[in-house]
Amino acid sequence: MHLPARALRCLFTVAPLVVATDAGAQVQDPFAPGTRWTAAPAVGAPWIPSSVDFAAGGELVFASGAFGHPSWLVFSSSEPAGAGGQIQPWFEVSAASATLSNMSVRCGDQARELFALSQIPEPDSAHRRTEITRFDALAAGGLAAAWTHDMGWRVNGTAKLAAAADGSRAVAVVHDGVQQALRIEWLDGTTGAVSMRIDQSAGTLRQFAASRDTGIVAFVAGLDLWVFDSSGALRHHEALIASTQALSLSGDGATLLVGAPGLLRVLHWNSSAFVERARESAPAAEIPVRCALSHDGNTWAAGWWNANTGRDVRLELRAAPLDALVWQELQTAANTAPQNYPEAVCISRDGARAVFGVWGSLDAQPEVVLVDRGLGASIARLDLPGSVTALALDQSATRLAIGMKHSHANQFASTGEVRLFDSGERDLQALSQAQLGGTLNLTARRSGAGSVWFLYGPRSNAPSSLAGVAGTLWLSRRTLSVQRVTADFSGRADASLPIPWSVPGSGVPYSVQALFRSAQGSGLSLTLLDPLAL
């Protein structure tokens, strides 16, 4: 699914207030907010998700889990839920070792660009081999490894992963505690070949961030902040007053967000150096632990944790001008409540929305909060039965992939699951996973529409317009196919479109848009679907 930039701005401008308080109830109405499905390797299997990300324009969810049943799983965002709201993974790959302690995933925008990091005990339990693998969800026979790269060191240190949005590169970093050194490698996305390697003396790796194209990377190691580019050149280094996990780099690589107890600083590249643009001060007991920046660096989100109480968290969204406060929420709990903690913060590329995931306090306060910058308010609040372990926001900022443990983070549990939440705002929705030689079920709705024309075919090289029709056409008019359906009283119409066996474009058979006709006129959908045929 894809929403062009202009359509996104329109969507966020008119977005209605969406409030969901129960993330466990599966909502079958595609135009209502709610959890679409829950998923795990098998019901009751020991598996807790450690990392999640969207791939293929949001059509796939890629997840890893290292506890009990180490594996990577691929889920369809459009798969309808079965009994109990569950779906099964389309693909599952079990890890080579049953004792993996670190697994994470990052995705490019295409289904062939699923990158995974794993650390495998070798040669003994005190050392680990760090591997990066690129999986291809469109490979013949299902999910397959296109290549695997061994980073060389056998260490007992942390490793982290990032991937370019276009899938052209992946970059990984691993720490050696004995040598007190870091190895950073940029890998070619197609072959896995190393294009640049940096071995740097450094303390314990705390956080790692990369620009959208991975051309710039930043990391906190020990009490040092480092920034390098993909040629190996040092862009910035400074000694910090305290080590921190609150580090983020904007998509364009020009803005840094870095934390300290009672402090968050915004640093901006002025063509020769990173200089401080703004700072937020807080009581010393408040520690920023997670943060995220938009592509242009003008909008940022952060999660603060109160080290004195252990139970109080503050979530905030700030934006230009002057990095002003747009929204914030304070969660507090009684002394008997378990520790609360901000586990994940994500932000859309354009900064229009941010999502926060916390451990929670075993009360009615939400573990997941989706915030709209234009509204200056939360639009979804999800009270989970356990703690968030991982979180991802899709390109349209209307869907969340949530990794969660089935109990609180401080309580023992061996199971967890991935959930897909949909805000229900898109005016065109897929109701099934596209399959070659089969059909794709869709629905579209606009109030007042008497009929809906489902337009499908290849994308155009440039957007165009139709005479007398409001909105932008993103499909090629020469090869356009049309299916007309009468709408019901709510302006909704459902359709079933054929999926050919011969599929151009690496799994995307065509794009789909809707044209709504009513007594007031005609208009094209804001949503453009790119269904993925598996």
What best-fitting shape do the alpha-carbon axes yield?
globular
Helices, by number, come to 1
Q: Determine Rg (CA atoms, Å).
A: 23 Å
Helix content: under 10%
Average pLDDT figure: 91
Question: What is the makeup of the main sheet?
Answer: 5 strands, mixed
**Widest β-sheet, arrangement of strands:** 5-1-33-32-31
Which percent range describes the beta-strand content? over 45%
The end-to-end span amounts to: 15 Å
The number of strands is: 43
Structural class: mainly beta
Low-pLDDT segments: 1-19, 504-508
Q: What do you see in this structure?
A:
The protein is globular. The two termini are 15 Å apart. The strands form eleven sheets. A five-stranded mixed β-sheet has the order 5-1-33-32-31, with no helix packed on it. The protein has one helix and 43 strands. Mean pLDDT is 91; it is low at 1-19 and 504-508. The chain is 2% helix and 51% strand. The chain is mainly beta and 534 residues long.
What topology emerges from the helices and strands here?
Layout: H1 5-14, E1 34-39, E2 49-55, E3 60-65, E4 71-76, E5 86-87, E6 91-94, E7 102-107, E8 114-121, E9 128-136, E10 144-155, E11 159-163, E12 169-176, E13 181-188, E14 194-201, E15 205-210, E16 216-221, E17 224-229, E18 234-239, E19 247-249, E20 255-260, E21 263-269, E22 274-281, E23 286-293, E24 299-306, E25 313-319, E26 324-331, E27 342-347, E28 353-358, E29 368-372, E30 377-382, E31 388-393, E32 399-405, E33 416-422, E34 428-430, E35 439-445, E36 449-457, E37 459-464, E38 469-470, E39 473-475, E40 481-486, E41 492-498, E42 511-518, E43 521-524
Parallel strand pairs: 1-5, 38-43
Antiparallel strand pairs: 1-33, 2-3, 3-4, 4-6, 7-8, 8-9, 9-10, 11-12, 12-13, 13-14, 15-16, 16-17, 17-18, 19-20, 20-21, 21-22, 23-24, 24-25, 25-26, 27-28, 28-29, 29-30, 31-32, 32-33, 34-35, 35-41, 36-40, 36-42, 37-39, 42-43
